[in-house]
Description:
The chain is mainly alpha-helical. The protein is built from 13 helices and five strands.
Amino acid sequence: xxxxxxxxxxxxxxxxxxxxxxxxxxxxxxxxxxxxxxxxxxxxxxxxxxxxxxxxxxxxxxxxxxxxxxxxxxxxxxxxxxxxxxxxxxxxxxxxxxxxxxxxxxxxxxxxxxxxxxxxxxxxxxxxxxxxxxxxxxxxxxxxxxxxxxxxxxxxxxxxxxxxxxxxxxxxxxxxxxxxxxxxxxxxxxxxxxxxxxxxxxxxxxxxxxxxxxxxxxxxxxxxxxxxxxxxxxxxxxxxxxxxxxxxxxxxxxxxxxxxxxxxxxxxxxxxxxxxxxxxxxxxxxxxxxxxxxxxxxxxxxxxxxxxxxxxxxxxxxxxxxxxxxxxxxxxxxxxxxxxx
Length: 341
Ligand code: AMP
Ligand code: TRP
């Protein structure tokens, strides 16, 4: 099965990213899937950002992807801007995406509210995301719940393109985890955990020191009552139970019965400890990998080569189906290598 997912290099990565992203990516390897994981640097320029930080954070994220379990022998990890087909396909797919569809995207509306300058790129962001996915004839996209609308859009665009121009794309499906597809902020459990939209104290970063992690869990907002049980009117404790579940792999019912009568305080301390244990080996691997940027660059260059090869046939099929006159080199886009004439 062909898998594709993308993750933005800007903004520190957090426990929500691990639960909805990293954890699912690594799981695809054990299933023997053919998987591509893309550091979507081109998506990161759609809101205000710092170029120097982008450069550093792109390598930070590469180290984090390998540290959380991606094996360069089994998965393809690469940087979006290393593969020109993504931007090229995005322009082409813009013709099969409507203004109305883009205007309905909740992520656009949320992010636009927080920007002084609302870039055109922020609006067309989901078209680039559709290009990412469709170029690889992707069967399934592992993501967190917040990406559902974007994956549905990619599917709609693919269907429309196929109907207009003939079968060109596989229709992608979303894979979201059954538990932990939407980890909430520890201070404001009505909001998703996020370094850009959440609270600093309620966001557990992948690189937080153990003491910081413990403190964040100790001060997590809980609800009235004292029962460690999931309920709609107990968003704080429900979130902590889910976090415990994803950190330890224990079924949520088991956690609830183990903490029956234990009280919130003891439970919060234990969740904090479970997360510290989860993060410790990841952080150690991360620091090791990050200390050798040349090795990271080498791995990413290999990934980009594989990604170029995998995506080019789709790009060429799009160009043919859409009626472009071929250039004398036989290719209209990108690093044109003359085709044998
Ligand atoms: P981003 O950092 O926005 O590129 O997101 C990378 C991945 O993390 C995507 O698959 C998101 O759906 C996922 N993700 C982000 N925030 C959360 C969260 N609070 N809970 C679960 N998954 C999340
Ligand atoms: N929009 C996604 C996010 O913010 C990142 C992303 C870009 C992505 N391209 C993708 C996710 C393709 C899955 C597939 O999390």
